[in-house]
Amino acid sequence: MRVLVVSSTEKGCESLCNLIVEHERWVDITKCQSASQARRIILDSELDLVIVNAPLLDESGEELAVMVTQQSLATSILVVKAEYFEQEQALYCDQGVLVVSKPVIRQMFFQALSLGFSMRKRLSAMHNENEKLHRKIEEIKLIDRAKWALIENLGMDENQAHRHIEKQAMDLRKSRYDVASLILKTYQM
User: Fold this and answer.
1) pTM, whole model, 2 decimals?
2) First CA to last CA across the chain, in angstroms?
3) Cα–Cα distance for residue pair 162/147, rounded to 1 Å
4) What is the pLDDT at residue 189?
């Protein structure tokens, strides 16, 4: 698991890092002290979890926590002062941000970490399935374009074009996608 801890104080950063390592031994932790540094890291690397110990040096931290959930697959935990906990939780819960109150209670933080890692795994699985479906749609579009190329250039009907692509794929031991690509190259479409 790859975790980014954003905290304006070294003490806050170290205490959060120690809790993370206690909960999850095999974790790669990156640390930074400002929202601007964190944004660069988030956009340049693939993270699983971002923990924001609010407030930060250059902003309150809430915007950063929301940005994480909107622009990456990482989950976000926002650590806030106790007096702001209920308000922050009400504001940011719907945006996928987990909110934890200070002082951090070990067991509550572990629950938030477990929930954050679980959310990340689920998001990742959904993202992978979505990518797979997009590739399948692109494959279908390409094969359909190849069928129309055969219909227009060789006078086949749609069933004949479909069978032609299927037969070529079996004969050449290639995928229908590869055969369709060759057909489109042949007719320069």
Assistant:
1) 0.76
2) 45
3) 6
4) 58
